[in-house]
Automatic annotation (TrEMBL):
Source organism, top-level taxon: Eukaryota
SMART domains membership: TPR (SM00028)
Coiled coil: 195-229
Composition bias type Basic and acidic residues, residue spans: 605-624
Keyword field contains Thylakoid: no
Protein name as it appears in the record: Uncharacterized protein
GO cellular component, as recorded: cytoplasm
UniProt keyword annotations, A-Z: Coiled coil, Repeat, TPR repeat
Coiled coil in keyword set: yes
Organism: Ceratopteris richardii (Triangle waterfern)
C-alpha cells in the first residue's frame, strides 16, 4: 500500500489506513489531502479518500474519487479492494465479489482480500467459491485455527459433512496431547460437539457415539452431551440404553417435554396426534402412574396424561390437575388446557367439572367431595376459567356472565378486564374490546404488556391515532414511529397496516407492510457480522443453525403476512389506479366560475411555494446536522441524525408505475419460501390473470389443487380461469395457438369440470357442499359470473343457507350458530358489491344481527354500536351500587344467578 510514494507520503498513506480502521475520518482526510497536494493523480490515495468520505455519508463524491483512483491505477489491488469495500457498504455484494476477484488477480495471496471475499461468499451462499477461498486461506496460514474451522464449515454448508469431519480430525492432529489449556476449554468443547454433530449428520452414528464417549472428559456442556448421547442411542435402536439415559435426564429436569418424548420412543410407545390405540394408552397410563409416584411434584407428569387418557380416566385426572392450580390462582391455566378442546368429548367434561366447582364453591366454599375450605380467590379463578371456556366454545353470553361475576367478586384483578375484552373481540365488538383493554391498562400504567395489549385492541378497532399516542408512552422521547421501527416492532406495523387497509388508506398501509419487509432484509444483512465472530468464539453449532434459519427466514409468519397484504394493496392499486394531481385538479375545477378558478390557482401556487420553502429549510437542517456529526469524527457515543420522513402518508408508494411488477417481487419470495401455503398460489393466480399470463395462472391452479382440493377459493379460481379462457378470441399467432393447446391438454387434470359445462360443475359443487356457508357463497358468486341473468337464483342460494347447531363436546356449544362471523361478513360483501342487491344485503344484516348480537359490523342488539361505547363499565357501576358486605358468612360470593348481567 502506497509503495509508489516517497517515504514521507508513504507514512501518510499508512496513517490514512490506520485512521480509517480507528474511525478517525477527519484525520484520515487531512493526511490524504496532504498527499494529493503533491501527487494529485495517485490512485490509491484517491481511493482511500473516497472510502473515508463514504463513511461520512458523502457517497456520490466517494464513488467519484474511487473510480478516478481506479482509472489512474488499474493494476493496484488496493484500488480494487477499496472499490469492493465501497460496494459492500451499499450491500451490492455481487459487484463487491467481482472487485475482490480482480484484486486477487493482481495479488492472489493477499490474506485480507481473501478473508473479505470468503465473508461475502458465505453471505451470498456461494458455497463452491467459499470452499475454494477457505482452502487458499488455510494453505497460506496453516497454523491459524480459524482457517481450519472455516474450511470445515465451508464443506459442511456445501453438504459434505464427511469431508468436514476429516478436516477437524486433521486439525486435532496438530494439537498437543494436553490441549486445551484452561482458557480455551469452552472453545475446544464446542468444536468437539460440532464434530459429533457432523458425524451424526453424515450418518455415522456409531462413530459419533464413540467420539462422544471418548471425549466426554473434555466436553464442558455436560447436560448437552447427555442429551446428544440419549438421542444417538435412540437412533441406533439401542432402546434399553436410551431408556436409561432419558430416565437420568428426567431426574435432572422432569418438566422437559423432549425428555418425555424420548422416553416414550425408547419404550416403543408411538404417539401420533392423539390417535393412540388401546394398548398404547394402557402402556402410557402405566408409565405415567410410575413416574407420578417417582416425581409427585412434577407438573408435566400430571399434564401429559391428559392428552391420551380416555374420557373415564380423563375426568378424574383433569379434576386432580386443575384443583391446586385454581387454588393458587394461575391465570395461564386455560392456555395449558386449550389443546384438549380439539379432542372429542373432553371439552364437555371440562365444562361439567368447572360448573360443579362453581356450584360447590358457592354453596359450601369447597370443591366437590371435599370438606376443606377454599380461599375466596378460588371461586374467582374458577369463574375466570369458565369465562375462557365459554368464550372458546363461542357461547359469548355465558362467557360474559361468568367474567362479570368475577369482576363483581374482585374488581381489582387486571386479567379479568383483559379476558372480557378478548371475549368482546371474538364476539365481533372491537370497540368494546379496545375500551376494556384501556381500562386494564389504566389499572397499571407501568406494565408494558398491558400497554401493548391495549394498542393492539385499539388498532383492531381502527383507532389508529389513539393507538399511536398510547404506544408513545413506552417509546423513547415519545417518538413512537422511529422507535417502533428501530425496535422492529412488527406486530404493531402489521396491525396498523391492516387498520389502514380496512380504511382504504393504501399508501399508509403499504408503508407499514414494506417496513416489515425491510426488517427481514436487515435481518439477512445482520448475519454478515457473525461470519467471523462465531468462528472466532467457536459457537459453531449455533452458527450453522443460524445460517440455516436465515435460508428459510422469509417463511416466517410475519413476513408471510406482510407480503400477502402488500400484494393485495398492489392488486387494488392496479384495479383502481389513484388519480393524478392534474386529474384531481381538473375534477375540482369542473363547474367552477372563472373567478373561482383563478382564486383556486393562486391558492395552489402559494401552497406550492410554501411547501418548497419548508422542504428547503428541512434539507438545510439535515445538512447542518450531518456536518456537525461528521466533525465529531468517530468519537464514542456520536450517533447519526435521524432523517425526516418525507412521505409520512405513503403517497409516493401509490404512484408506482407497475403495481403488478411490484407485487410479483413479493410473490417470488412467497413461492420460494411459502409454497406449502394455499394463499400463496391464490395470489399468484390473481396476479397472472391480470397479466394475461394464462400458463402461469394454470400452474398456480394446479398447485392450488394439491393443497386445497375442497376449498371454495380454489373452485372460484378454476371456474373463472376456464370461463376467461373460453371467452378469449381465437388466437392469431403460433404462440397463442400453442398456449391454447396446452390449456386443453391440462383441462383433464381438473376432475371437477371434466365432461361438464362450467354451470354443471358449479351446481355439482353446490350439491356436495350444501351445509357450508363459505362453499354456498362461492357457488353463488360463480353462478352470477357465469350467468348474470340468474342473479335471483344466486341470492336464493345464500338466503336458503341453514345455520346448523353443534351439541355435546364439539367446539361450539349447543344453541350457538356454527357460522363464523367472518363468513357472514363475506356473504354480506357478496350481496352488496358482487350481486349489488341492497335489499338482500339488508335482510342478511338483520338475520346476522340476531345471530351475532355483539357484532358491531351487523349492529347487533348488544354491541357497543347499539348500546354505547361505555357499556363495558356496567360491572363497575353494579359493583358500586351493591350494599356493603356482599360476601356470605364463610367469606364467599353469594349466588348471583338471579342477577341479570347484560354488559
Amino acid at each position: 500500500m502506497g509503495s509508489s510514494l516517497p517515504p514521507k507520503e508513504a507514512n501518510l498513506f499508512k496513517l490514512i489506513a490506520k485512521s480509517y480502521e480507528t474511525k478517525q475520518y477527519k484525520k484520515g482526510l487531512k493526511a490524504a489531502d496532504q498527499i494529493l497536494k503533491k501527487f494529485p493523480e495517485h490512485g490509491e490515495t484517491l481511493a482511500m479518500k473516497g472510502l473515508t468520505l463514504n463513511c461520512m455519508d458523502s457517497k456520490a463524491e466517494a464513488y467519484e474519487l474511487v473510480r478516478k483512483g481506479l482509472k489512474n491505477d488499474l493494476k493496484s489491488h488496493v484500488c480494487w479492494h477499496v472499490y469492493g469495500l465501497l460496494y459492500r457498504s451499499d450491500r451490492e455484494y455481487r459487484e463487491a465479489i467481482k472487485c475482490y476477484r480482480n484484486a486477487l488477480r493482481i495479488d492472489p495471496e493477499n490474506i485480507q482480500i481473501l478473508r473479505d471475499l470468503s465473508l461475502l461468499q458465505a453471505q451470498m451462499r456461494d458455497l463452491g467459491g467459499y470452499v475454494e477461498t477457505c482452502r487458499t486461506l488455510l494453505t497460506l496460514k496453516p497454523n491459524h485455527r480459524n482457517y481450519w474451522i472455516a474450511f470445515a464449515i465451508a464443506h459442511h454448508l456445501n453438504k459434505e459433512p464427511s469431508k468436514a469431519v476429516d478436516i477437524l480430525i486433521a486439525y486435532e492432529g496438530t494439537l498437543e496431547e494436553d490441549y486445551p489449556p484452561d482458557n480455551e476449554r469452552y472453545e475446544h468443547s464446542e468444536m468437539l460437539l460440532y464434530k459429533i454433530s457432523l458425524l451424526e449428520e453424515a450418518g455415522d452414528l456409531e462413530k459419533a457415539l464413540e467420539e462422544l464417549n471418548n471425549k466426554l472428559v473434555k466436553i464442558v456442556d455436560k447436560l448437552g452431551a447427555k442429551e446428544i448421547q440419549a438421542s444417538l442411542l435412540l437412533k441406533l435402536h439401542r432402546y434399553k440404553e436410551a431408556e436409561k439415559s432419558y430416565v437420568n435426564l428426567l431426574e435432572i429436569n422432569s418438566e422437559n417435554h423432549r425428555y418425555h418424548e424420548g422416553l416414550k420412543k425408547s419404550l416403543g410407545i408411538s404417539v401420533e396426534n392423539g390417535t393412540e390405540g388401546v394398548d398404547t394408552v394402557t402402556k402410557l397410563t402405566d408409565l405415567y402412574s410410575d413416574l407420578q409416584r417417582k416425581y409427585p411434584k412434577s407438573v408435566a407428569m400430571k399434564r401429559i396424561p391428559l392428552d391420551f387418557l380416555e374420557i373415564g380416566s380423563f375426568r378424574s385426572a383433569v379434576d386432580e390437575y386443575m384443583r391446586p392450580l385454581l387454588r393458587k390462582g394461575v391465570p395461564s391455566l386455560f392456555s395449558d388446557l386449550k389443546s384438549l378442546y380439539s379432542q372429542p368429548g373432553k371439552a364437555h367434561v371440562l365444562e361439567e367439572i368447572l360448573l360443579g366447582y362453581e356450584s360447590s364453591l358457592r354453596m359450601n366454599g369447597s370443591f366437590p367431595g371435599s370438606t376443606e375450605q377454599e380461599p375466596p380467590s378460588t371461586l374467582l379463578w374458577t369463574l375466570f376459567l369458565l369465562g375462557q371456556h365459554f368464550d372458546r366454545r363461542h357461547a359469548f353470553d355465558k362467557a360474559l356472565q361468568k367474567i362479570n361475576e368475577a369482576i363483581l367478586h374482585t374488581p381489582t384483578v387486571i386479567d379479568l378486564y383483559l379476558m372480557k375484552g378478548r371475549i368482546f373481540k371474538h364476539a365481533g365488538d372491537a370497540l368494546a374490546a379496545a375500551a376494556l383493554a384501556d381500562e386494564a391498562r389504566s389499572m397499571d400504567l407501568a406494565d408494558r404488556f398491558l400497554n401493548s395489549e391495549c394498542v393492539k385492541r385499539m388498532l383492531q378497532a381502527d383507532q389508529v391515532e389513539q393507538a399511536e399516542k398510547t404506544a408513545s408512552l413506552f417509546t423513547k422521547d415519545g417518538d413512537q414511529h422511529n422507535n417502533l421501527y428501530d425496535m422492529q416492532c412488527m406486530w404493531y406495523e402489521l396491525a396498523s397496516g391492516d387498520s389502514y387497509y380496512r380504511q382504504g388508506l393504501l399508501g399508509k398501509a403499504l408503508k407499514k407492510y414494506l417496513a416489515v419487509e425491510k426488517h427481514y432484509a436487515d435481518m439477512v444483512e445482520d448475519q454478515f457480522d457473525f461470519h467471523t465472530y462465531c468462528i472466532r468464539k467457536m459457537t459453531l453449532r449455533a452458527y450453522v443453525h443460524m445460517l440455516r434459519f436465515q435460508d428459510h427466514l422469509h417463511s416466517h409468519r410475519f413476513f408471510h403476512q406482510a407480503a400477502i397484504s402488500a400484494i393485495r394493496c398492489y392488486l387494488r392499486l392496479f384495479d383502481s389506479p389513484p388519480k393524478s394531481a392534474a386529474e384531481e385538479e381538473e375534477a375540482a375545477m369542473r363547474g367552477m366560475a372563472p373567478a373561482e378558478k383563478k382564486k383556486l390557482r393562486q391558492k395552489q401556487r402559494k401552497e406550492a411555494a410554501r411547501a418548497k420553502k419548508q422542504e428547503a429549510e428541512e434539507k438545510l437542517k439535515e445538512e447542518e446536522a450531518a456536518f456537525s456529526s461528521s466533525n465529531k469524527g468517530g468519537k464514542k457515543g456520536s450517533q447519526p441524525p435521524k432523517t425526516a420522513d418525507t412521505d409520512p402518508d405513503g403517497e409516493k408508494l401509490l404512484q408506482v408505475e407497475d403495481p403488478l411488477g411490484e407485487a410479483t417481487k413479493y410473490l417470488k419470495l412467497l413461492q420460494d419460501h411459502s409454497s406449502e401455503v394455499l394463499e400463496t398460489h391464490l395470489l399468484a393466480f390473481e396476479i397472472y390473470m391480470r397479466k394475461k399470463k394464462y400458463l402461469l395462472a394454470l400452474q398456480a391452479l394446479k398447485r392450488q389443487l394439491k393443497l386445497g382440493l375442497e376449498s371454495p377459493d380454489v373452485h372460484r379460481c378454476i371456474i373463472r380461469f376456464f370461463n376467461d379462457v373460453d371467452n378469449l378470441p381465437p388466437p392469431s399467432t403460433d404462440s397463442g395457438k400453442l398456449v391454447n393447446s396446452v390449456i386443453e391438454l391440462e383441462r383433464s387434470c381438473f376432475k371437477s369440470i371434466e365432461s361438464k359445462t362450467l354451470l354443471q360443475a358449479n351446481e355439482s359443487f353446490l350439491n356436495m357442499n350444501k351445509d357450508s356457508l363459505r362453499h354456498r357463497a362461492a357457488a353463488a358468486e360463480v353462478l352470477f359470473l357465469l350467468a348474470p341473468e340468474q342473479k335471483s337464483t344466486a341470492v336464493e342460494i345464500l338466503e336458503s343457507s341453514v345455520c346448523s347447531h353443534s351439541a355435546g363436546g364439539g367446539e361450539i356449544a349447543e344453541g350457538v350458530p356454527s357460522w363464523g362471523l367472518k363468513d357472514c361478513c363475506l356473504v354480506y360483501d357478496i350481496f352488496s358489491n358482487t350481486l349489488k342487491d341492497l335489499d338482500a344485503a339488508s335482510r342478511w344484516k338483520s338475520r346476522c344481527a340476531d345471530l351475532f348480537p355483539f357484532s358491531t359490523f351487523f349492529n347487533g342488539v348488544k354491541s357497543s354500536a347499539t348500546c354505547g361505547s361505555e357499556n363495558y363499565t356496567y360491572c363497575r357501576k353494579m359493583q358500586a351500587s351493591q350494599p356493603p358486605g356482599p360476601l356470605a358468612a364463610n367469606g364467599h360470593l353469594p349466588d348471583f344467578s338471579a342477577l341479570k348481567i347484560i354488559s
